[in-house]
């Protein structure tokens, strides 16, 4: 019953292309790509759609659900055509496509404004929406770098990962005491502990720098 949660709620295969803008093959490839080899029974798809809807809603788009669907449909069509997408993680690629969809929607709104002399009713002012968009861009960049840091931690050996997590676990008055206890457990001096941690941190910061430059 793989992917039952989504497929049961989806249109039949002969209506799928008309209602979703995707063929049955494209939709299945989209589900598989979002699952990254681990069948979530459609939960990853639903969660990504929720996140994209929130992304557009925070930017003041009136039809956030439709824009989220359009984003996922474009990715599904790419997967149907090419068979694979090299960019990872999947969420990062989804947000890249979402930005293009957002820009197109803003352009459509601007065209409507020029043609009709008014814009759709919106409780927020343009200034408020712009401020919200800028704040969300910062939050999105922060989230992406945290994801990169998490991948870097997961790439470390269990011993190195435990070492750097324990080193930075405490704050305030407990910080020094905790690091002394960590050095004692490892049978090394505080100086040696600092050098060992600095090497691990340098590797993680390099990953973070790569994340920042790519964005």
What distance lies between the first and last C-alpha atoms, to the nearest angstrom? 38 Å
**Unreliable sequence segments:** 1-19
Radius of gyration: 23 Å
| Separate helix tally | 10
Coarse structural class: mainly alpha
Shape: elongated
Descriptors:
about 220 residues; 2 domains; mainly alpha; Arc Repressor Mutant, subunit A
Itemize the secondary structure elements and their pairings.
Layout: H1 4-7, H2 13-20, H3 24-35, H4 43-58, H5 64-82, H6 90-116, H7 126-155, H8 158-167, H9 174-186, H10 190-214
Could you characterize what this model shows?
- With 215 residues, this protein is mainly alpha-helical.
- The protein folds into two domains: 1-123, no CATH class; 125-215, Arc Repressor Mutant, subunit A (Orthogonal Bundle).
- 76% of the residues lie in helices and 0% in strands.
- It starts with a helix and ends with a helix.
Outline:
The chain is an all-alpha fold and 215 residues long. It has helices at residues 4-7, 13-20, 24-35, 43-58, 64-82, 90-116, 126-155, 158-167, 174-186, 190-214.
């Amino acid at each position: 019953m793989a992917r039952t949660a989504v497929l049961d709620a989806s249109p039949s295969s002969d209506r799928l292309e008309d209602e979703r803008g995707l063929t049955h093959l494209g939709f299945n490839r989209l589900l598989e790509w979002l699952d990254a080899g681990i069948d979530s029974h459609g939960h990853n798809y639903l969660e990504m759609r929720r996140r994209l809807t929130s992304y557009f809603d925070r930017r003041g788009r009136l039809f956030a659900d439709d824009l989220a669907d359009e984003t996922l449909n474009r990715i599904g069509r790419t997967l149907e055509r090419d068979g694979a997408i090299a960019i990872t993680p999947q969420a990062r690629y989804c947000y890249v496509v979402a930005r293009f969809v957002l820009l197109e929607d803003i352009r459509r709104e601007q065209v409507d404004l020029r043609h009709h002399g008014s814009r759709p009713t919106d409780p927020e002012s343009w200034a408020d929406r712009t401020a919200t968009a800028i704040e969300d861009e910062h939050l999105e960049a922060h989230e992406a770098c945290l994801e990169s840091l998490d991948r870097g931690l997961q790439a470390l050996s269990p011993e190195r990962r435990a070492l750097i997590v324990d080193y930075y676990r405490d704050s305030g008055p407990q910080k020094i005491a905790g690091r002394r206890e960590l050095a004692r457990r490892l049978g090394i001096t505080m100086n040696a502990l600092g050098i060992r941690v600095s090497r691990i941190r340098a590797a993680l910061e390099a990953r973070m720098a790569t994340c920042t430059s790519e964005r």
